[in-house]
Amino acid sequence: MSLHYKNHTMKNIKLYTIIIVLFVFYSCESLLDTKYDNTFGDEYTWKLPEYATGMLMNAYNNISALPNSYGNDFLDVATDNALTRVKTSTLSRFVANGISSKNNPIGNWENFYMQFQYINIFLEKGFTGDILYSIADSTRNETIKKRLLGEAYFLRAWWGMELLKVFGGITEDGQALGYPIVTKFLNPADNSTLINIPRNTYEECILQIMADCDSAYKYLPLVYTGTDVDTGSAQDGRASGKAALALQSRAALFGASPAYQPQGEYALTVDSLEKKWKRVVVLSEKAISSGSIGAYTALTEIMYVGPTVQNITNAEFIFRKWSNNRTLENQNFPPMFFGQGRTNPSQNLVDAYPLKNGFPITDTRSGYNPQNPYVNRDNRFELSIYYNGKIFNSDRPLEIYTQDNGVKGRDVAEYDYSNTITGYYLKKFLSPTKDMLYNPSTLTGSNAFHQYPLLRRAEVYYNLAEALNELAGPKGNVSGSNRTAYDILKDIRTKNGIANTQYLDEVATDQDNFMSLLLNERRIEFAFENHRFFDLRRRLLPLNEPVRSVSINKISNGYEFYGTDPNDEGIVVELREFDEAKHYYMPIPYEETLKNPYLIQNKGW
């Protein structure tokens, strides 16, 4: 059964589980207040392989297939990368400091724990002798069971990591805490102790995630290839051994990050922190070598949108979801092309892309011209952002300007209330198909296949480079790796059109400056893949950078740009009201702390 999540083969499983799912969400007020009924089946139903795998599919299906899954927004709009034009959205309210322990749109504690319920009951009941995944072939039965076991461990690690990213934090007394680790299905007999479960330490959660990844790697195929019906390419899209190793690298990075180190009387020794960074090196190198993930490859448009992405996973995407629709286009195409113009990249993000000679726009040697700002920029700029004059979907240049006589271009803010506020439109993830949302010949729209990368091999290399720089500086060597942070960043920049190493060589003389460059590269590499929100927090970087825009006047001999000069203050269009230390951590939901007094709250909430 191919796991493409929208595939017709899922329909049979959904028939078995739809009633179960409805009961699950209406019968459980909270993980730590679980009511046990027939929601998860009786002994007879647990003899049905479709029922058992259906439980596991729930934990898969609750992973979003689209990157704008935060109330129809990308998480980037809660950072300095972008803003959402929809001012009534949950993230628009969030950036105006609309967050509390009673109202937090980032993450859902109860939903995360429900995934643990699905997975843990599958681990307990999905491998009894009563369930035969292949009645006629005992060897195949064992092959399927082994793969499903690996998938269950991977999914538990995945949801544990998601829970930790959102709710892990520092308490008022300096403890670094994660979430209450639960590795068994919760039934009535547990109720007397559930309300007394404390949060495990951040490190204990990291170790649990890593242990589950180890188990997943043990049982899963490294990659799905060949013609075998159960472990071949027909299963592409399921959790794999490669994905388990890549997830370990991510967990190790968060475990070593500055924001999650115990403070005060709980503080770590320098030696312990060094061991955490060394762990990032070891596990990232393991993902590269044992995982055979291959060399870094620059992202291209066809990797994540186009007619061929539904049946294959590009080697860059270690774990992904895919969908066949036009949701992203409906929400983010410019309004004059029948979209809603929802996601507006910021001038801040545009400024982050270097020139092709490797220099940032703030360096006079870059040749950057604020009155001709979009030429000779890093290749990732063209891949991610639509700007004034750029041809939109083989149709016409975008008109994000005002003429001398006051006439508005068709794509500038004042022409239509839905047009961009910042002067930019999103390009990444969107189909380049002409007349996609409305074809005047057929009077209809069309869909496109999209892949949403959840784990990329680029991430493993960035994780490794960050750890190497922390341990030994840009060009220092660390045992267990034959690479340096400099080597990795040089390879990444070269493959994105930056062959000149002069600026990189200069920055490589200072460890802190090199880290700033590395984090900026990470920012533009993973723009709109929902990384920056967490990267800002785990590295304790400023959260209150105001979002800036561009304003363009069309004159007789070209354009006049305002807001593109890095020496000016720029044009502020939206503030970020994250000016307290507490904003580096999300609050534990208030109702959960009422039920369980041992759930110590993150500081400031």
Report on this structure.
There is one protein chain. With 605 residues, this protein is mostly helical. The protein has a domain at 327-347 and 379-446. 37% of the residues lie in helices and 9% in strands. It has 19 helices and 15 strands. The protein has helices at residues 10-27, 49-61, 90-95, 109-125, 138-167, 191-194, 202-219, 241-256, 270-289, 301-304, 327-332, 347-352, 379-384, 457-472, 485-495, 502-507, 511-525, 532-538, 590-595, and strands at residues 82-84, 169-170, 176-177, 317-325, 343-345, 385-386, 391-392, 396-397, 402-403, 425-426, 448-456, 547-549, 551-555, 558-562, 571-574. A three-stranded mixed beta sheet has the order 9-13-14, with no helix packed on it. A two-stranded antiparallel sheet has the order 1-5. A hairpin with a 5-residue loop joins strand 2 (169-170) and strand 3 (176-177). The longest helix has 30 residues, at 138-167. The radius of gyration is 25 Å and the shape is globular. It starts with 9 loop residues before the first helix and ends in a 10-residue tail after the last helix. 48% of the residues are buried.
TL;DR?
It is built from 19 helices and 15 strands.
Q: Largest beta sheet, briefly? A: 3 strands, mixed
Q: Gyration radius, to the nearest Å? A: 25 Å
- Compute the separation of the termini in Å: 46 Å
Shape type:
globular
Low-confidence stretches: 1-38
SSE-based structural type: mainly alpha
User: How much strand?
Assistant: 5-15%
Mean pLDDT score:
91
Name the strands of the widest sheet in spatial order. Answer: 9-13-14
Number of strands: 15
Helix content: 25-40%
How many alpha or pi helices? Answer: 19
